[in-house]
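QA checklist item 7 of 12: single-chain prediction sanity check.
[x] sequence parsed
[x] length recorded as 490
[x] structure emitted
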Amino acid sequence: MDIGSSSVKIALFDLNGKVIHFKEKAYKSLPEQDPYIWWKSIKDIINDFKKHKEFNEIGAIGVTGQTRGQIFLDKKGNPLRKAILWLDKRATKEAKELNNLIPSKKRKSIWGYVPKIDPSFPLSRLVWIKRNEPDILKKTYKVLQPKDFINYMLTNRWGTDLEGGLGWFNIKEKKVNLDFLKELNIPHDIIQAPYSFTDILGEITDKVEKELGIKKSTPVVVSTMDGFCNLIGSGIITPKIAMDICGTSEIVGFLAENESNKYNGITVLPFMDYYFYGGPTQSGGASLTWFLEKILYLNTKTIDIEKEISKIKKILPDNNKIIFLPYIDGERTPLWDTKAKGAFLGIKKDHTYLHLLKAVLEGVAFSIADIIFKAEKLAKVKVNEVRVSGGGSKSDIWNQIKADVLNIPVSRIKITETALLGSAILAAVGVKFFKSIKEAKDSMVKIDHRYQPNQENHLSYSRIFKLYKKSYISLKDIFHELDQKGVNGE
């Protein structure tokens, strides 16, 4: 199960990584959500799964999902308010204060690494709740993340994993820093002790068996957040292989042995025995969707998107380069600039919509390269393969563009929903279907196709990539001025 901000996805896998059944239930993505929306969506999907004989053969359950969301529960497990999700910015002031209060050295002693404290950081949210909704904090018995709330609903057990609970725990000491929470006058017992993500949290209860039809005593494994499940579902548990999850945004990153003290816009997180380097962009697949829907007036739900993309073959070879900056909703990694804007540069009268479409695909590939190249420099690692998944990975043309831009072989994972696959791998290991995560991923993760970089194309892209980076620097002040009141008639 994958508890996202805009949908719940559920898949049933066999031990060879084959998807037996898959279904998704969408809902509106909001900064606050009623946690029972997730539960209702699960019930709706499970009702459909019951039609299939394999439903009665479920051996284990793993739940993953969005991180940086908080559900405040009373002693009976009832939510005291709507869940505050990762995209909520209400704790901006608190994040700024905590950044000033906690220098890097102190952060290292509190959390075992140096986290970036932003409005979605768990401590920022707790301070905001303490100031603005003190009655909620007084009544709170536990604070859970979305996937942990679903685990509680399934098993009636509290728990979270160490890696997915970043911001709650000292990752080195594997415990909550009690002294610091006392300094802020926040009760430490609302945060549950961490488990390993392959631990069995509990079993399906009588109530859930009656409500969902899943057999009582089916084990539920703790699992971890979607970003780390994507890594595992991509078969990445050691350094030098990067992932690119091509969805609404691009989630890009790899593992390295070294921890960097500098960040340069790159997120560095401890994971297993390594450090994760990377982060999400703001608009990957969203840039393509925007262009197809808003510029070409196409319905992306009904058209064959790859067929539309394949039309750019008509203009190849293309020496009339256009640069597209895919910052149509600001940018996260590595710029972290909410005021950045999308832009086409270099348009001439003989250009057509196909040149613009190709530029969109290339611009997203450049944004991925910007993350990987900066992360490589920080981690002192050279990536030798990029594994792509997600909806955008279905495009052979886009995958080849990425390989050419990066000058790194790109491999497409057969299963596009790698977060679900990663959680299934953890569940399989938790109940001893496999001896290790390595054994499980070797059996369940399959490569569908490999794309080798074209050196001639790469040389051309290298020149354009330099201009791509220079374009943002040159336009940054203009982007920010466009946000000022009085501009565009505001």
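[x] summary fact logged: Residues 2-224 form a domain with the Nucleotidyltransferase; domain 5 fold (CATH 3.30.420.40).
[ ] second reviewer sign-off
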